[in-house]
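Task card 7
Instruction: Convert sequence to structure tokens.
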Amino acid sequence: MSRLFGGVVTFMESDVPVVIGLCFRLSPFSDTTALLTTSTTQGCVCALRSCAVLQLDASMLDVGKWPVFALLPPEELRLIRQACVFGTAANEALYVTLNDEAFALGTNCSGCLGLGDLQSTIEPRRIDVLCGKKIVSLSYGTGPHVVIATADGEVFAWGHNGYSQLGNGTTNHGLTPAQVSTNLLTKRVTEVACGSHHTIALTDDGEVFAWGYNNSGQVGSGSTANQPTPRRVSSCLQNKVVVNIACGQLCSMAVLDNGEIYGWGYNCNGQLGLGNNGNQQTPCRIAALQGVNVVQVACGYAHTLALTDEGCVYAWGANSYGQLGTGNKSNQAVPTLINTDKERMVEVAACHTSHTSASRTQSGQVLMWGQCRGQAVACPHLTHFTSTDDVFACFATPAVTWHLLTVDGDDYLTVAQSLKKEFDSPDISDLKFLVDGKSIHVHKALLKIRCEHFRALLNETDEESIEIQQFSYLVYRAFLEYLYTDTINLPPEDAIGLLDLATFYRETRLKRLCQETIKRGISEENAITLLSAAVKYEAMDLEDFCFKFCVNHLTSVTQTQAFADMDHELLKNFISKASRYGAFKN
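Output:
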């Protein structure tokens, strides 16, 4: 499942919330129904929120937890595929239905709903320009201004434009979505992020463009002059490939494909992680994370979270609400490793509407810290949630969505959902596999359609039961489930056996998915084991990934038992390749 994402404003040099910006991007997630809360200053919203809790399938995301959707009838809620909630009181929303129609409702500040006027609406109104556009990334700022990227790589923007944050070269508010064309027409944008009044965009070739408000250097142009149209952020990012972006209130962050992380803009709370409190007008590498490979960055109101390839979380910046998770309320100008005392993390979450932080573990546990419903929680706290979305719906103020949400209806099953439901169900199956003494029930027609191996096998036999001895029950069941769901339901350490099967059956896509699953589970202890498996099964991409991980963590990896037991030929090749890679240079 994939999930969705005028006037003079006074900026204060503290982490007191006076301006807001929020970035959405697609990412894997799961969710569950949860009770909701709100700011103590908005009792009317509290009442609405109590009415908004709908009892839906626990595997579905319930947009009813956000009060702006409280008056939508259930039949309308079931049609929503993507949604976001934003605004200073979480009272504006955009959503996309199953047939790709876009709608908006709420207070419509500065025309941020894109409806062509400034009228608020308690009932959804259709945004004609966005219908059929297939939104892949959405972000918004304080005014608010709203920016989206489509599946075709186009960028559209509307709403507040007092600082040219719409990128159209003017300061006139945009009441309807308009394409951002300057310097982007030949580019394919994959992700957008908004600060309070500035915007950055990431292209598919790893370039970053920025425009809008620039009082602290957040556009990265080398000056503090506002940038009216998209301008490429070069300087230290020249000839580098960026893979992830995020915006704090007045700063910008970028993660490179080699795991380095850069920041620029406002830094009075140390949110750039540079060891000082000076603003930066061009991108600066966070030297304190040298040797650490960052894979995701998230920005809060005045703090930053970074997730590493080993599942560790670093935090820096403002900390008056404990949002860094360090156990105290002291600001940190350099990245500080958070002691979660849990398993590896796979997601970090923050939005600069609030001082709330959250993370999700590999097994799906969710932790939260920072400002939680008015309380200052200084250490990561384990919750009963299964999604970081619930943390922001229940404990953040305002209770906005921190990224793009994707939802399913509760009583309609797609073809994929129907197939998943019938996997290993004996009711209507016509074939049974016996593996390690256990049965797995499947359907011959589906297996023939999905797998060339089974097409050949089942055309030659009418057996209703087939015994498998070459593979384990766990691996073979995961393989058959993949044929029904297109996903792998195995922990990373067990995916090696599935990689063996995928190689044997010549299932190219499954082989690729196995490699991605194994990558997510790599650690210093198992890196050599995974490298050996990659070499054995000729998984070139995985081999390259494991090799680079070993080199980046060379000291720790060479002290493991797996390295001591390494095959002689593999060890010789590893040392030779590592030497050419420059691993042994002083």
